[in-house]
Structure formats: structure tokens, C-alpha cells
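We append the chain.
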Amino acid sequence: MCDNYVFFDRVDTKAIKGIAIALMLFHHLCFFNDRLPIHFAFKDSKIIFLSSFANFCVALFLFMAGYGVWHKMIQGGNILDNIRNLLISFWKVFIIYIPIGFFFFGNQNKYATVEYISSVFSDFNINQLITNFIAWDNSYNYEWWFMRMYIISIVLGAIYLRYTKSINDIYIEIGIMLCLQLTCFILFSDKFNESNPELLSNSIIYKMLYDMKWSKVFPGVFMLGILCAKYNLILKLLDYNKNVCKNKVEEFLLAIIILTFIICFRLNIGRKVDGLITPLFIVAAKEIYDFIPVLKKGLTYVGRYSTSMWLIHSFYIYYFGLFRNIVYLTHYAIIDYVILFTMTLASSIMIDYFWNRVFKLRQHIK
């Protein structure tokens, strides 16, 4: 194992999360034609091109989760703290937005091709409320499926690290990663499901994992985050880049070339290559935002609110009709994106401020 360098300090972590959440908002805003306003679709090929790539945000979040789990474990921390903090962030949004949905958006006219978009809050059920509150179900917000994925990843990552802590050979661990990846790819494939239909009806865990869009690929990306942290692979890539280039300008230009190649490559091959390209993307992104300090500062600020922005943004583009009309006011992707981004970031800041005041008041009362 390499020496314990910490490549991702808090600033880098937030900057990468800032990129991930920016991609997520763009993907959800532009990509799904059946969720857009009826009789409307973004037709600009560049918008379609970029919105297709933007679901790469999931790989970035998974990679960062794996990276964070390793550092948490190596520092003697408890990964249950990660899960607890995520659930607290989740409940902060849930307690505010779900009542708003039922009180103000329970009776909406159909405004998208898929009907569920406008009718999520049309029928209140206590069992559904409970299962959504504990993140077992995501019927109140279909983009909350990642909650289960994240929690499962953290738990499995901690188990993996506990039983492989004596392994100090990267090639052995890459072999383990590839075996796990291949196993998941087979188990959660449509072909395997068609051959074993009883699994969906008899196994709650299998059905939950199968229903997750990224079940076939998440082990590779998540575990690669663990391996990159454990063996300092990102640091080695950065050092190699510095050795190849003569100065900061050359490093910046090379990063632009790498980033362009990654985008084109993934659009042609698909998300099954995310385990391969995610570290390269992060290295290129770091070179770029390190070269442009104001960009790094902006990404870091946004990354600070990335969890809340992920949990909130889909209410504005999918489930709350009034706000949806504001977001899609112009039907120009860039302008609509700025509107969505501003609304989501502002809401996240206000929610953070609100709960900080609540907790301070609670401490004062005590």
C-alpha cells in the first residue's frame, strides 16, 4: 500500500460533488422527453448530447462514496455516522417538501406524457408515508432511489474493507472488484431475470436491487473509489500528468483533451465503462478547476449543498406544477437550467439556515 496521502481534502471533495450535482440537474432537466411539458422537447443536438452524458453524475457520487468510506474506516470512524448524516439531510427535506406536496399539489392537471409526474401527491397512504420516510420506497420522489443505493454501498463497502484489510496487493483487489462487477452484471441483467422470474416475486432484496437502474454497474465504480483511496491511484495519475507536461498551461490543455475524450467515449460506449473513466475524469476536472481558482471556489460552494440540491431539484422540474412552469418558462435549455439551478441552490441554503436555527433554538431551550 502507498503512504497515506490524502488527495481529496474537503475542498476537493466538495468541488467534485459540485460538478456531480451540476450534471444531475442538467440531466433531469433536459433528457427525459416524457417528463417534459406536453408537446415539447429540447431539439438542439448539443443539448441532447450533453444531457445524455450528464447521468455520469451517479458514477461520480458513487466513486466519492467509496473514497469516503475508505478514509472513514482508516481513520477509525464509524460508517454508521455517514448513513445517519445522510438520513438526517434526507429528513430535513422530507419534513418540508412532502407536506407541501400533499397540501398544495395533490390535485394537478396532467402536464407531462407520463401521468405519475403530476399525480404523485394525489393519494395519501400512511404505509406509503412510512416506507418513504425510512427511504425504503421512493414513490414520493422517483429520483430518491439513490438513497438506497448509497446506503447499501456504504454497508457493503465497510464489510469488504473489514475482511480485506490484510490484502495489500492492488492486482488481487482489482480481481475481486471485477468478479463482483461481473456477478452483479449477470444477476441484475434482464436475461437472468427472465430466466428466474420467481426472484422478483419472492425476494424483496433482489427486487429492490433489480429496480435500481445502476445495480449492474455500481460495485465497480464504488469499489474503484475505495481502491483509489487505498492505493493513491489518483495521486499517481496526477503525478504522471505533471511529469508529462512542462507547466500548468500544458496540464490544463491536456485535461481539456482528456475530458473531451471521456465525454465522447462514454456517449458511444455507455455507463458500463464508468469504472474505467471516473478516475480519469476526476483527475482532468481537478487540473481544470485548480487552474481556474474562481471555478474551484464556485464548485466548492455548490458542493457544500449538493445533498440538499439532489433531494430538492426534482420537485421543481417534475412534481410541483407551479414551480415547474417557472423552470420551463423560456424553453431554452441554458436559461431554464439557470432558473432551476438558482431555485435549487437558494432553497438548499434556506433549508440549511432554517434547520440550523431550529437546532440552535432547541439547544437554547435545553
User: Anything to note?
Assistant: Residues 10-365 form one domain. The mean pLDDT is 86.
